Amino acid sequence: MTTTTHPFPARPQAAVKPVRWAADTLCALREGARLYLDHSARSLWRVDRLIEELRAEETPYPAVENVLRGLGAYAGEVIVRHGGAEWWAAGGDHWVRTPDGRLWDPVDEARRCFAGHGSLRLLCRDALRT
Predict the structure, then answer these.
(1) Helix (H) and strand (E) counts for the chain?
(2) What's the CA angle centered on 81, arms 23 and 101, to 5 degrees?
(3) For residue 130, what pLDDT is reported?
(4) Which of 55, 58, 60, 99 is the residue whose CA sits 20 to 30 A from 110?
(5) What percent of the chain has pLDDT over 90?
């Protein structure tokens, strides 16, 4: 009998889509914009600036909708990796639940950021505070 151990516990089913959205967006940014992000809280400065640049260029929302979803999912992954949080899903929406029970919506925060009213860096900072 062969047993395999994994260094990390299995991800909950709710994580599947956001993890994929984040990975796809990071791949596109590396290839297209030569932007490398390392899943650190500090990398969210660059993400906020990127969203600000898209807004300043007056990029139509439909053209960046999937990118914003991926950047929000990336911010959620930063919170999951550094804060012991986990993804939750219901009705097609995805949130990050921190160990203290709070729910965060980084995908919506990316949309708010594009509208000029949010910050993924600040969302992460607040979520990681204990």
Answers:
(1) 5, 3
(2) 115
(3) 62
(4) 99
(5) 76
Distances in Å between the Cα of 106 and the Cα atoms of 6, 31, 47, 101, 129 are 28, 24, 12, 16, 16
Tens digit of each residue's pLDDT (9 = 90 or more) over 57-95: 999 999 999 999 999 999 999 999 999 999 998 888 999
Identity at 5, one-letter amino acid code:
T
Domain spans, the chain: 14-128
CB of 80 closer than 8 Å to CB of 41: no
The pLDDT assigned to 19 comes to 92
| Domain covering 14-128 in this structure, CATH number | 1.20.120.1090
- Sequence-ordered list of residues with C-beta below 8 angstroms from that of 63, at least 6 positions apart, any chain: none
**pLDDT over 70 at 7, yes or no:** no
Phi, psi at residue 111, to the nearest 5°?
-65, -40
